[in-house]
């Protein structure tokens, strides 16, 4: 079943190794295939991954976009160790994320991490 994607004007999306930028009008299209797909709003860069949760998210994002879990496994383990030392209450979500990664469900792992980014921001503002 194809994925239906609607892009706002000038919104970008990553499909596989390509970045697609929309023109000045809203666009809808269908994507059929197995390439990794991420919207611009869900993508972190090395510069924006400046907290423990964001570093974990960026690592999983790279696993997903590169389709290469082993290349980032050691980095991921180091990041989750750092995160759990800082915020032990995130353990259950990190465990669920790790289980999703082990089963190859990388996009779902990213979705699992997104609420932690918001919770971390709230903790940092206190």
Automatic annotation (TrEMBL):
Keywords: Bacterial flagellum biogenesis, Cell projection, Cilium, Flagellum, Repressor, RNA-binding. The keyword RNA-binding applies. It comes from the Bacteria. NCBIfam families: PRK12791.1. This is Flagellar biosynthesis repressor FlbT. The gene is flbT.
């Amino acid at each position: 079943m194809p994925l239906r994607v609607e892009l706002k004007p000038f919104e970008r999306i990553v499909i596989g190794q390509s970045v697609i930028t929309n023109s000045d009008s809203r666009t809808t299209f269908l994507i059929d295939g197995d390439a990794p797909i991420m919207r611009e709003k869900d993508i972190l860069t090395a510069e924006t991954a400046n907290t423990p949760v964001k570093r974990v998210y960026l690592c999983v994002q790279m696993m997903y976009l590169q389709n290469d879990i082993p290349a980032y496994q050691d980095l991921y383990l180091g990041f989750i160790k750092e995160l759990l030392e800082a915020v032990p209450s995130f353990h259950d979500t990190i465990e669920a994320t790790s289980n999703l990664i082990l089963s190859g469900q990388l996009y779902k792992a990213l979705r699992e991490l997104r609420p932690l980014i918001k919770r971390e921001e709230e903790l940092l503002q206190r």
